[in-house]
Amino acid sequence: MSAPTLEEDLEGALDGPAAVDGVGVPGIRRARAWLTRAAEPGSVGFWRWVDDVGPVAAVRALRAGTAPEGARALVGARAVEDASLADLHRAERCGARLVLPEDDEWPVLPLHSLTLAVVGRDGDVEQADRTTALVPPVALWVRGTARLDEVVDRSVAVVGSRASTAYGEHVAGELGHELGERGWTVVSGGAYGVDVAAHRGALAAGAPTVAVLACGVDRAYPAAHSTVFSRIVDSGGLLVSEWPPGAAPHRHRFLVRNRIIAGLTRGTVVVEAAARSGAQATARRAQRLGKAVLVVPGPVTSAMSVGCHDLLRDEDVGARLVGNAAQVVEAVGGLGVDLADPPERPARAGDGLTDLARRVLDACPVRVGVSAERLAAVAGCDPLEAVRVLPGLEIAGLVQWTGTGWRLAPPPRRRRDG
After folding, report:
1. Do 220 and 286 belong together in one domain?
2. How large is the average pLDDT for residues 341-346?
3. Statement to judge: residues 67 and 153 lie in one domain
4. Can you tell me the distance from the alpha carbon of 269 to that of 159, in angstroms, rounded to the nearest whole number?
């Protein structure tokens, strides 16, 4: 029995419900698969048109040449092509699937921010600047066994420069590991530098991590990260892409996919970013989506931290400085629940002293002992007051009686081993 044609699947989907037992009707699934290859994502007008008429009607109109002019211009010569069934089979062979907005697995809440960003925009179908537009995806190709909605429910994006420094890679790896230990999913782009360091940190903690790719989920780009991508899938993580299997990683696609990284997560952490960087662009998309923007500061002399510092100085972005995973979770976690502990401060012997005791201590000389009367004169207090606090200072190991007067206690000698 031959496989149904695209037109046959679309015809069968016209009168059916959007989903059956959580699985999209074959026609709807095939229609959205066709759209992921036919139209480059990121067009506000195209998404709104598909959302208005439905994916099945949109595909039929595009193939019949009756779609709005803007939609036909975006699809172009791809309208007469059909690789939807081959794409679905190719995905199945590599352990991937197409997740639709009609599926139970669709991350409704995280991606709702992208839907809200479209509200109020001009509904005309036109190809605007897709690299900066905030538009929901028509579908997502997902490789891995975990459910997409569950994996990204508590997730944070960790992004940064490809030409990262040792400092940036260390911080990204620590953040990935500590976030994973706290039960948070790290989402990044799988690129060189900060991205892969964050993924590896999460993997070292045995936690799931998500790589949002600018190519098909069956392709490893960069090729040097093929082992990392395999580990992500094998460790309960996911590879996610708007483009079908086999799609090439064209340069513009990296800029387009950044909105998915920002949209899927509760906040974006920028570890290192140059003056012009994709990481900085991702952070600004997160801000426009109402997500938290978190920034790790770097040396003021480092070109790889210029973008980070620009974000911190931009009042419109409202970026928050963070230095560890606890501070990240505090910013994106539950209100009053995921609070970061205050930084530890080393205790000193003089902590907790009264003002009088501190003045008497400051008046004590280092070598020669002096009388209480002399200490009182220097400290500006009555001699009897100085006499009352000196025993307590001696017990604390801060002052020492020499037999003729009081002086500061010498520091304890370091024990020599051997």
Report:
1. yes
2. 63
3. no
4. 6
- Stronger pLDDT, 169 or 11, i.e. the higher one: 169
Per the CB < 8 A criterion, the answer to whether 168 and 304 are in contact is yes
* 403 Cβ neighbours under 8 A, 6+ residues apart: 369
Question: Can you tell me the mean pLDDT for 223-249?
Answer: 97
Q: Which helix (H) or strand (E) holds 406?
A: strand 406-408
Count of beta carbons in the 10 Å neighbourhood of residue 149: 18
Residue 42 and residue 114: Cα distance in Å, rounded?
A: 11
Sheet with strand 96-99: strands edge to edge: 96-99, 140-143, 238-241, 209-212, 185-188, 155-159, 267-270, 292-295, 320-321
Compute the half-sphere exposure of residue 291: CA atoms within 13 Å on the CB side of its CA: 31
- How many folded domains does the chain comprise? 3
Tokens of 3: 């496989």
C-alpha–C-alpha distance, residues 272 and 170, integer Å: 11
Question: CA 305, CA 298: separation in Å to the nearest integer?
Answer: 5
- Over the Cα atoms of the chain, what is R_g? 31
Distance CA 242, CA 199 (A): 20
Same domain, 132 and 171: no
Half-sphere exposure of 330 (CA within 13 A, CB side): 12
Range of the domain at 398: 355-408
Residue 121 pLDDT: 58
Do 118 and 137 reside in the same domain of the chain?
Answer: yes
**Domain check: are 181 and 242 in the same one?**
yes
Peptide bond preceding 17 in cis form (omega within 30 of 0) = no
pLDDT value of residue 120: 57
In DSSP terms, 292 is beta-bridged to 267
Secondary structure E strands in 256-366: 267-270, 292-295, 320-321
Structure tokens at 415: 């024990």
Query: Considering Cα of 245, then 251, then 255, then 256, what sign does the dihedral take?
Result: negative
Q: Is 281 inside a domain boundary?
A: yes
User: For residue 211, what are the β-bridge partners?
Assistant: 188, 239
279 and 149 within one domain: yes
What per-residue string of b and e applies to 245-261 under the rule 16 or more CB within 10 Å gives b? bbbebeeebbbbbbbbb
Length of the chain: 418
CB count in 10 Å sphere of residue 317 = 18
Reference 38, options 212, 219, 211, 242; nearest CA is 242
